[in-house]
Amino acid sequence: MEAYSDIFGTTEKALRLRSKRMELISGNIANADVDNYKSRDFDFKKIMSKELAGKLQSSHPAHISASDPNNLQYVYRVPVNPSDNGNTVELNYEQAQFGREATRYSATLQFLESRVGGIRRALRGE
Q1: Cα distance between residue 55 and residue 28, in whole Å
Q2: By the 8 A CB rule, do 35 and 87 touch?
Q3: CA dihedral in degrees (17, 46, 34, 82; nearest 10)?
Q4: In sequence order, what are the beta bridge partners of 76?
Q5: Taking the CA of residue 12 as centre, how many other CA atoms within 13 Å lie in the half-sphere pointing to its CB?
Q6: In this structure, is residue 2 part of a structural domain?
Q7: What percent helix, strand, coil does the chain show, rounded to 5?
Q8: Would you tell me how many other CB atoms lie within 10 Å of the CB of residue 29?
């Protein structure tokens, strides 16, 4: 059963990271009017490229994975148009980012569904 332990590969990790990124962007949008709130994000490409390069292989089960959505290094964006109250959320930018990420999430999910369909067909002998 070792062969089936990681049948979805990096697609599953990408889906989890995209979901976490959408949560962060949603939080930024929700806090657009909060004084001194800092817009947070993380570098999806950087994390996934390390994952694909195999640099994040843990040597012990207790090690923390950098692709773990609960253990990410956040990036704080510098706004183009700073607000008077110290808030760095730019609503138009965040909404555009959310739309892009939702599209990417949907594409990743469709890819994963296609993969599951292929596995089902293989198991049925089609």
Answers
A1: 30
A2: yes
A3: -150
A4: 40
A5: 8
A6: no
A7: 55, 5, 40
A8: 15
47: three-class secondary structure by DSSP: helix
Does residue 25 form part of some domain? Answer: yes
Task: Give the C-alpha separation, 11 to 112, whole Å.
Answer: 7
CB 18 within 8 A of CB 105: yes
Residue written as token pair 């773990």: 68
Cα gap 5→11, rounded to integer Å:
14
Strand partners, 90: none
Domains identified in the chain, total number: 1
Q: What is the mean pLDDT of residues 23-43?
A: 95
pLDDT in tens, 41-93: 999 888 888 777 764 555 555 544 544 555 678 999 888 988 899 999 999 99
What domain range is 115 assigned to?
A: 9-124
What is the pTM (predicted TM-score) of this model?
Answer: 0.75
Q: Please indicate, yes or no, if residue 64 is contained in any of the structural domains.
A: yes
- Look at strands 40-41 and 75-76 and give their pairing: antiparallel
